[in-house]
Write a structure and sequence with these properties.
The chain has 430 residues and is of the alpha+beta class. Helix content is 66%, strand content 10%. The chain has helices spanning 9-13, 23-62, 68-99, 118-121, 123-162, 179-215, 221-270, 278-302, 305-322, 339-360, 395-405; strands at 169-171, 174-176, 327-332, 365-372, 375-382, 409-413, 420-427. A hairpin with a 2-residue loop joins β1 and β2 (174-176). The two termini are 25 Å apart. This is histidine kinase. GO terms for molecular function: ATP binding; phosphorelay sensor kinase activity; protein dimerization activity.
């Protein structure tokens, strides 16, 4: 049984199969595409930074005053840099938000252009400036250090071949003049390759974390916290009201309706078939039985009894057995979950399998339940025609709202031609 793939590089680094997955190559692609961007930004910073450092060094070492021309150049350059930075950082931030998808499958929404004034007066814009400066100053230094370590490792691995030349070869702290002397260092270099591979992933993960922190910063954290708290209170109140309605229907209305149906059935036995009252009585009896079925469906819709009896994994397997297409269930949930999380996850699977049957034209589907730290991950995929669009109906939109009310999020991938994949992440901290 396999577990769900990590949605971002930080989570993938903690998995034992990281080195044989696609994540190291995604990290390498992220680093490789960063290099030209960071290099171009560093050149722009050096135009002002290098003369400034030279002037400060001259004053500190020789006590010579800074010339008027250099002072004017530094002043004008600084003003131009401060004036241009909010505008230039908008493009750099947009590219970085898009590029973050190389190492993080969690979407980071692009921010629309809010006007020239907003580029100089909003905290979001200056966070983008801070990230651009960080990308052009700190990142190149880190990359040079990693490049140096990679070069040293390559030299270790290649040392037996280099030692065959006429000149002695310096390896780390010693000199070797024969291939035999260099073999232990080559073995050390080979053993360090996985470490270096992990190091590249860690560097990419650190850069992506800073990017998400600065470029995805909420506009009003205090307001967002209050919205989150109020939403949690509403969810708790909804769950309490749902349980009350379920109890009242199950213990009050349903037994009375059952008794009414029995009484009508007994009355039908006492009334002759040719009696004028036989026909209306039969209709009333049938309507009472139909109302019982409807009431059971209502109670089932409030909270499926299978969740209580079988747990989430069993209830999902029951949904799979009732589906009109073959459904494979992979469940790796071996600990109790909060009731609200179980109910939301069940509705997600139920709605998605219903969409598969009604709209996708699929021949098979897969459902996966997994724990990723404090998250319950629910994934539903099918081999249908794809092109699912939340704007064309209320099903997926309502499902996303229900997931958001539980503090989770819904991700949808459905290109034309398929396949369709729905991923839901629900917090399930005890």
């Amino acid at each position: 049984m396999t577990t769900a793939e990590a949605p971002h590089l930080v989570g993938a680094l903690r998995r034992p199969g990281y080195l044989i997955s696609a994540w190291p190559w995604r990290a390498l692609a992220y680093l490789a595409t960063t290099a030209p961007i960071a290099g171009a930004l560093s050149v722009g910073l050096l135009v002002v930074g290098a003369p400034l450092l030279a002037a400060v060094n001259a004053v500190r070492q020789h006590g010579r005053p800074v010339s008027l021309a250099l002072t004017l150049f530094l002043a004008v350059g600084t003003l131009v840099l401060v004036a241009v930075a909010p505008i230039a950082s908008a493009g750099a931030a947009a590219v970085e938000r898009w590029r973050l998808g190389l190492v993080d499958d969690r979407p980071l929404a692009q921010r629309p252009w809010a006007g020239l004034r907003a580029r100089y007066t909003t905290a979001d814009a200056w966070r983008e400036v801070a990230y651009t400066v960080w990308l052009g100053s700190v990142v190149p230094l880190a990359y040079w250090l990693v490049a140096l370590l990679a070069g040293l490792d390559v030299a270790l691995v290649a040392s037996p071949w280099l030692a065959g030349d006429a000149d002695d070869v310096v390896v780390l702290w010693t000199t070797v003049d024969t291939p035999g002397q260099a073999v232990p260092y080559a073995i050390l270099g080979v053993l360090l390759v996985p470490v270096l591979w992990y190091g590249l992933g860690a560097l990419a993960a650190a850069q992506a974390t800073v990017a998400r922190w600065l470029l995805g910063w909420p506009t009003d954290t205090a307001a967002l916290r209050e919205v989150t708290r109020s939403r949690a209170r509403l969810v708790d109140a909804y769950e309490a009201e749902r349980r009350r309605i379920e109890r009242d229907v199950h213990d009050g209305a349903q037994p009375r309706l059952t008794s009414l149906s029995l009484q009508l059935g007994l009355a039908r036995l006492d009334v002759p078939d040719d009696s004028p009252a036989a026909r209306p009585l039969a209709v009333a009896h049938d309507q009472a039985k139909g109302l019982m079925v409807m009431l059971r469906q209502i109670v089932h819709g409030i909270r499926p009894q299978s969740l209580t009896d079988l747990g989430l994994a069993g209830a999902v397997r029951e949904l799979a057995d009732e589906a009109t297409v073959p459904v494979t269930v992979h469940a790796d949930v071996d600990v109790p979950l909060p009731e609200a999380v179980e109910t939301t996850a069940w509705y997600v699977v139920s709605e998605c399998l219903g969409n598969v049957a009604r709209h996708s034209g699929a021949t098979r589907a897969d459902v996966r339940l997994d724990r990723d730290g404090d998250l319950l991950v629910v994934e539903i995929s099918d081999d249908g025609r794809g092109d699912a669009d939340p704007t064309r109906g209320t099903g997926l939109t309502g499902l996303a709202d229900r997931v958001a009310a539980a503090g989770g999020r819904l991700l949808l991938a459905s290109p034309p031609g398929g396949p369709t994949r729905v991923r839901v992440e629900l917090p399930c901290r005890p």
